[in-house]
Amino acid sequence: MFSKACEYGIKATIYIAVKSMRQERVSLKEIAEEVDSPVAFTAKILQSLAKNGIIDSHKGPTGGFQIEESKIDTIKLHDIVHAIDGDKIFSGCGLGLEQCDARQPCPVHDKFVGIRDNLKIMLQNTSLYELATGLEIGLTHLKR
């Protein structure tokens, strides 16, 4: 459903949030290792997240990535998805067809519109805090 970059971005953001709630910054290498993603690919993802104000990047010997603790509850899963994948998940065809809209619907268009609307609501209502605390108490695992 989400791109591989988006999946890694969600995992990375959750990991950074968990560490930030402990007042810790994390390195690119540590994040890439934790989410099982190549370092260069992870760097591009983190750059998008920082550019969109989801995470903060600090340079230097005490640098790394973190999220202001006060922002963790206000960041929604939708913000992360939008920063990496944009809004294409909410507008594209469910079957991946180029010519699909209300005037020329694919066979699943009407069914997929409802699913897409429910997905958007879930993403807009799920906070990073909820995901990070789920990880903290063992309900969520970043690695397979």
TrEMBL record:
A Gene Ontology term for the protein's cellular component: cytosol
Top-rank taxon: Bacteria
Pfam families attached to this UniProt entry: Rrf2
Annotated GO MF terms: DNA-binding transcription factor activity
PROSITE patterns linked to this entry: HTH_RRF2_1, HTH_RRF2_2
SUPFAM superfamilies: Winged helix' DNA-binding domain (SSF46785)
NCBIfam families: rrf2_super
UniProt-recorded name of the protein: Transcriptional regulator, BadM/Rrf2 family
Organism of derivation: Arenibacter troitsensis
Lineage: Bacteria, Pseudomonadati, Bacteroidota, Flavobacteriia, Flavobacteriales
